[in-house]
Structure formats: C-alpha cells, structure tokens
C-alpha cells in the first residue's frame, strides 16, 4: 500500500475537524469550551468522604514551607512517554511501569528487575543492625552524625538519583542511592569525590558489600554518609533471589495510607492529582495525590500539571517533618500519563495535545485521537475517518424504574425497605421536627457550634445509608439518614468511638428509636453527630397504615417542582444528562451539572467510571448541599445508575 502523502493527511484532518464541528452543533453536543470565569458558578464539594480529613491541611503544606532537599536541574520532575491515550481523570487499568527498572537495554544507573513480593525476611545484609544505631530526631534540627564500624554484606541497590555530572566531575548516581534487604532500606549519601564513592558503576540491581563508618539522618530519612571497601557481588544475595548486576527490587504497592515506617522503602503507587497545588519551596509544587486506599503529597518541579493527571511513582518514600511525601529526585521515578490538552480541547500543534494529534482547519484546531475501530476510542467517542469523535451521550429511558437502595427484605445489608411514593403522613412524628428546632441557627459565615442535648427520637425510619465499606466499622453503620412525616435528618456518628454506633446492623427500612446527645449543622443541613440507647423496632408500624421494620416503607420523592435547601436530606429520585467537562473534585470523584428539569441544575459528584459528559443517569439518594448549592454526592454506589 503506498504511503499517504502529507497533503492527504492534511485533507483528512480538515475533514475530521469539520466533522467535529458538525457533531458539536446539536442540542446534546459536548461543550469543550472553558467556563465563563466572569459569571458566578456553583462550587462542587471538594471534601473527602471523611469530612474530618483535609489532606493538604493535615500534611502541613504551607506556601512558605521548604518540604525537603533543595534541588536543581531536572530533579523532582516526572517523565511522559507518548503512547496509549489515557483521559484526564483516569489511570490505566493495568500498571506495568517500573521506574528505573523499565528502561530498555539499561545502562548505569538504571537496571534491575521488578519484584512485587517482599524480600525474604531471612535476607539480612546487616541493615537492621545499622538502622538501630541511626541517631534519634531532634526538635527543629537534624542530629549530628554518628561514627560507627559496621559491615554491610550483599545489599541490593534499589534506586539512584539521576545520572547527572556534578561540578566535581562525579556522577551523582555514584554517590546518592538507596540499598535494601529483607530487613530494611536506607539512603546512601556520600561526598561527590572519587575517594568517597565506589570505583565501579552503581546501577539499580547491583549487589554490594562495604564497610560503614558514618551514619545520620536527614529529616526522617536514615542515611549512610561515609563508607569504604566497596565490592560488587555477582552472586545471588539470597537463595530465593536473582544475582547482581540485575538483581530483583522489591516494590511495596500500598492499599492504605502510607505510614512513617515506610520511609526510604521502595513503592509503586498510582493515583490522580487532586485539587490545586501549593508552592512548597525551591521552585516546587506540592499536590495531593489520591490513590486507592489513601492520599499523600507529590512534590515536583513540573509546572504544567493539572488536576486529574494520573501519576505512577516508583521510588523511595520520603517525608518532611513527619509528613509522608513522594519526591522524584530521579525523573524516571514518576511517570505521568497525560501532558497538555485533552481530547476535544482547542490546540495549535500536535505536541500541545496529550493525544499527540491536533486536527486543524484554517486557524482553528482541536486535539484528536487516531483510531481504526470504535474499540480504539475512549468512552462517549466513536471512530470516524480514523479519528475518535465525540458522541452525543446516552439517551434517558422513557420510564425510570431504578430505586437505589430500596431493594426489599432480601437485599444485602445495608440495603432494604420498600419504596413509597406518597409522602409520610404529617401526623407521623418521631420527634425530628422538635430536634430541628433545637439546632443552631444558619449563620452567614458558617454552621455554628454543635449543641449537646438530650432529645428522644421515637420510631424514625432509616431512608438511606452510605456504603458498606471494608473497614473495622463500615461507614453505613454510622453515616445514614432518618425521616418521619415532619423532617429528614442526617446521622453522622464517630466510627472510631466504642459504642458510638448502633449495636445492630444498620440498613434501609429499619424503624429505630434513640436519644440524640449532640446535634448541629453541616453545610446548613440538620445533623445528629452523637446518640445513645439505640433500639430497633419490628413489632408495629411507625404510623397507622405503614409497614413494620426492618423492611418498612420509605418515602421516595420524584420532585415535581424546583428544589430548595429546605429539601436537604430528603430521599429523592432525579434523572438527567451530565453536562460540563466533569472536573475532578476530590478523592477520585468528578463533578458535572445535572439538569433534572424545572430550569434548575444540580451538581452531581461521583466516582462511577461509567459516568461521562452526555451520560444519562438516575440518582436515588439524599439531597445534599455544599457552599449553598444543591448537590448530589454519591457516597454510596448503589445510589446511581448510568444508562448506556
């Protein structure tokens, strides 16, 4: 087949650009324009699912803080390898990146093999004994170095700084590297001169033996600062491991929050940059990186990152003043999967697009993506003339039957209950109306302080819960909503206090009594934050003509008017199409506008991977409020159905 000429490619791109413009003309077209910053816009909820946690605040990130070693050149930057397209807000389904171990035909200082299991605990090169002699931290400063006479035998080099030639003519990777065994990991930080460093090339996967004469710490990082008699070992450091110079490097892949005992340990972690970065010293930006199981700080000199960028970090864990952070002292430690403009955004040249293609016509351009079939294109796009073009989205059903958690008596906890489309009778009064009257008033500058009370609630119905999480105390056990014929209130109990939650499994459709002991507001919404004396009723219905628990009727409201903040906490069902770019808004969530009718849009916040701009979905859950705006926050995946 003859090669396609430059003229043919230009014509194809012009045709495709015209096709994109045509697609964007319909009523359901995707709006790729920037938001109008001159007019006020509702703020989505950027809080974490646990409202007591603010990762940036709790990590101690300050604009005037210097969070680590001052670096120059290309340190603390990430690597971008053009290849398979991954949209902003997503990470690849399978992560294979191995940092310095991913380099094809590696030369020093790169090399080694990825090992996804820990080293055998019997692999002991002497690091455990050495780490026990590291001086303890001091308030406000690092302790003096300690002179020792110790031996390290058969430790594995697991990471190095970049291969930069210092002013002394010494390669930095020769003097600044990390070693590990089955007992621990330590940073080696030697003077940059020929007398202080090994005489052979240091690379990841090298196995070393040497004598240690000086140790210390930099912040929380244990360091070897002076050593002699370096020898390269070409045999396996342990019977179950491969030999140097291509030895295995054990990577820890966390599924929870990183702790201080992981400092210097090699990890592989992938997540999305969240929120906005803080300036954090020496030209660095500190981002919150949200990954499955937790959040941490990612410190980088990259100034062209944006929220929703996926980062894979393969390197040692670092810290500053007791706060865990990831610092790519070697650019190969951090891979980014997006760079520049996303699919559908306006562009001038190919290199501006993370897709690598800018489709142009005259003076206008848009980032495109090459394809052969629809399977090559991301969600909500289709392959047309070898370019992925936006689709209009999914259609909404003529009849909505989705009922969220209201799945009947046979449903798995915490779901249950039966839908009731008539309101609860006004004389169904469990005491919630009186409780609401005792709340602190709505203040213009905040919610006001919680109040300690002793208010009996008699036979309220549980109408919704958060998800049944895989934690010691599931979120559904202390984060749920109750209602009667007068009011609906959120219950937000402390999951970490013994006896702080009901002594039975909480589920939708239960009828409960208790005594509220602390009440307040969250974003103006009524909330019970402490209670005692929980009782579950299954003997008689909570009102005449109702059903008994634990499968009682739950009022599900299909709004027949525009909603207001007075409707907060009510169980609602709304259906509509998602509009807007779907910006990231905290801990793996994205936020869209949802038009459900009545000339009113809501903010919908979800982590559902099927949700895309143009998708039609149904939400069945409590109505939320954030910063004065109505919001649907899908903290339970059973509250949402996305239609294909």
Task: Furnish the topology, listing elements before pairings.
Blueprint: H1 6-23, H2 55-58, E1 79-80, E2 113-115, H3 127-131, E3 146-160, E4 176-180, E5 185-189, E6 207-218, E7 221-233, E8 248-250, E9 266-279, E10 285-291, E11 294-300, E12 310-316, E13 318-320, E14 323-326, E15 334-336, E16 357-361, E17 364-368, E18 381-384, E19 387-390, E20 418-420, H4 432-437, E21 451-465, E22 479-483, E23 488-492, E24 511-522, E25 525-537, E26 553-555, E27 571-584, E28 590-595, E29 601-606, E30 616-622, E31 624-626, E32 629-633, E33 640-643
Query: Roughly how many Å is the radius of gyration?
Result: 29 Å
CATH homologous superfamily caption of the largest domain: Bacterial OB-fold
* Biggest pleated-sheet summary: 8 strands, mixed
Shape: globular
The number of helical segments is 4
Q: Using the coordinates above, name the CATH class of the largest domain.
A: Mainly Beta
CATH topology of the largest domain: OB fold (Dihydrolipoamide Acetyltransferase, E2P)
Distance between the termini: 38 Å
Share in helix: under 10%
Count all strands and give the number: 33
Spans of at least 5 consecutive residues whose pLDDT stays below 50 are 1-73
Total tally of structural domains: 4
Q: Taking all residues together, what is the mean pLDDT?
A: 86
Structural class: mainly beta
Task: Tell me what the CATH architecture of the largest domain is.
Answer: Beta Barrel
Quick summary of this structure?
The protein has 644 residues and is mainly β. The protein has helices at residues 6-23, 55-58, 127-131, 432-437, and strands spanning 79-80, 113-115, 146-160, 176-180, 185-189, 207-218, 221-233, 248-250, 266-279, 285-291, 294-300, 310-316, 318-320, 323-326, 334-336, 357-361, 364-368, 381-384, 387-390, 418-420, 451-465, 479-483, 488-492, 511-522, 525-537, 553-555, 571-584, 590-595, 601-606, 616-622, 624-626, 629-633, 640-643. The chain contains 4 helices and 33 strands.
């Amino acid at each position: 087949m003859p090669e396609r000429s430059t003229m043919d490619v230009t014509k194809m791109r012009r045709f495709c650009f015209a096709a994109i413009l045509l697609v964007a003309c319909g009523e359901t077209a995707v709006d790729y324009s920037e938001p109008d910053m001159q007019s006020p816009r509702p703020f989505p909820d950027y809080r974490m699912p646990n409202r007591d946690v603010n990762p940036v605040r709790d990590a101690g990130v300050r604009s005037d803080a210097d969070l680590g070693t001052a670096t120059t050149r290309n340190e603390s930057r990430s690597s971008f390898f053009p290849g398979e397209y991954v949209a902003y807000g997503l990470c690849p389904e399978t992560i294979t990146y191995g940092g310095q171990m991913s380099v094809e035909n590696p030369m020093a200082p790169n090399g080694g093999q990825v090992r996804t299991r820990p080293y055998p605990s019997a692999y002991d090169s002497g690091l455990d004994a050495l780490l026990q002699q590291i001086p303890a931290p001091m308030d406000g400063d690092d302790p003096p170095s300690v002179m020792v006479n110790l031996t390290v035998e058969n430790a594995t080099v697991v990471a190095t700084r970049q291969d930069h030639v210092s002013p002394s003519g010494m390669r930095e990777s020769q003097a600044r590297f990390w070693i590990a065994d089955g007992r621990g990991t330590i940073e080696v930080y030697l003077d940059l001169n020929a007398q202080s460093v090994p005489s052979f090339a240091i690379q990841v996967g090298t196995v070393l033996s040497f004598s240690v004469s000086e140790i210390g710490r930099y912040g929380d990082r244990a360091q070897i600062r002076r050593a002699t008699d370096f020898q390269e070992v070409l045999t396996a450091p342990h019977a179950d491991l491969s030999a140097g110079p291509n030895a295995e490097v054990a990577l820890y892949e966390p599924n929870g929050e990183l702790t201080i005992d992981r400092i210097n340990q090699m990890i592989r972690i992938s997540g999305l940059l969240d929120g906005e970065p803080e300036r954090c010293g020496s030209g660095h930006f500190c981002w919150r990186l949200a990954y499955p199981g937790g959040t941490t700080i990612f410190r980088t000199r990259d100034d062209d990152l944006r929220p929703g960028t996926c980062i894979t970090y393969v390197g040692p864990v670092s810290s500053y003043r007791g706060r865990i952070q990831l610092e790519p002292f070697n650019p190969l430690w951090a891979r980014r999967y997006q760079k520049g403009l996303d699919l559908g955004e306006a562009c001038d040249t190919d290199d501006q697009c993370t897709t690598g293609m800018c489709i142009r016509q005259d003076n206008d351009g848009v980032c495109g993506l090459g394809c052969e079939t629809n399977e090559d294109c991301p969600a909500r796009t289709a392959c047309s003339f070898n370019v992925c073009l936006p689709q209009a989205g999914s259609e909404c059903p003529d009849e909505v039957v989705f009922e969220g958690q209201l799945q009947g008596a046979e449903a798995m906890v915490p779901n249950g209950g039966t839908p009731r489309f008539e309101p609860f009778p006004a004389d169904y009064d469990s005491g919630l109306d009186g409780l609401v009257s005792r709340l602190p008033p709505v203040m213009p500058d905040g919610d006001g302080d919680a109040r300690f009370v002793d208010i009996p609630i008699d036979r309220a119905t549980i109408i919704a819960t958060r998800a049944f999480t895989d934690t010691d105390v599931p979120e559904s056990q202390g984060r749920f909503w109750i209602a009667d014929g007068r009011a609906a209130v959120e219950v937000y109990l402390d999951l970490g206090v013994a006896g702080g939650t009901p002594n039975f499994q909480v589920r939708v459709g239960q009828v409960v009594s208790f005594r509220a002991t602390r009440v307040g507001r969250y974003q103006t919404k009524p909330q019970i934050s402490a209670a005692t004396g929980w009782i579950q009723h299954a003997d008689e219905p909570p009102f005449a003509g109702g059903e008994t628990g634990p499968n009682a009727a739950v009022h599900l409201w299909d709004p027949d008017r525009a909603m207001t903040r007075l409707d907060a906490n009510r169980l609602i069902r709304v259906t509509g199409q998602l509009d807007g770019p779907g910006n990231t808004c905290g801990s793996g969530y994205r936020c869209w506008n949802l038009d459900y009718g009545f000339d009113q849009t809501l903010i919908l916040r979800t982590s559902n991977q099927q949700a895309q701009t143009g998708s039609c979905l149904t939400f069945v859950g409590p109505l939320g409020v954030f910063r004065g705006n109505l919001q649907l926050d899908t903290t339970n995946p059973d509250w949402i159905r996305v239609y294909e």
